[in-house]
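Page 42, continued from yesterday. The earlier attempt failed because a stray header line got pasted into the input along with the sequence. Redoing it now with the clean sequence only.
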Amino acid sequence: MKKTIAILAVAASLFATACNKSEILDPTDQRYIYMSYPESGNPVFNFSFVSTIKETVEIAVPIKFAGRPLTEDLAYAVKVFPGNKDTTLKEGEEYELPELIFHKEDFCDTIFVTVHKTARMETGTYNLKFSLESNDNFHATQTGFLEAELRVTAQISQPSWWNQNVIDFYLGGYSDKKFRLFSQNIFVGDYGELDDSEKQYYALKFKYWLEDQTPPVEDEDGTLMKVAIQG
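This time it went through. Structure tokens are written below.
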């Protein structure tokens, strides 16, 4: 397996913005550790290998603590929820947790969970659920901010936004191969939420990308891959 690492910067950047020292409680003799969700109150972190050519990624799960500032690196603890329902990713083969160290001189840190793509992800979604646990260094007591769930897939299917309007005016007919190339090289996200000028921009960018490929890209039916937009 190709050991290429891709750090998911979206969660990390949102976390950095949210990590404001004005949010930290007044220092006490105790330290209280908790999750810092990029989306308020949402403990789920979704990732699809459709959006990358990488076979190994790191999913960023932001954490914080409140209390007395750290003067040295300190270990914290997590518990993985076992069982076929809560955790279906295979430890060692499909995911690895990092060394659990909260670094000194900051109230914010990140759990970078390493996830490896496997063949079964192309036909399903698999998850890893874990929670922060109290140890000698940190208290995990803030109910509702202790759990995280990673949902990982490499499954591909036509998204709802690839409708007749997108077919007629922007990206042309749908195929799994076209969607994968568009997601990996041009745009990741909900294309349907874009305004018309943004849709035009990314459709033209994809058109020019296809024109630059040697040999030309064939679609799944053997014809040259093309888009609907002109320009």
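Notes: The two ends are 40 Å apart (CA to CA).
Reminder to self: strip header lines before submitting.
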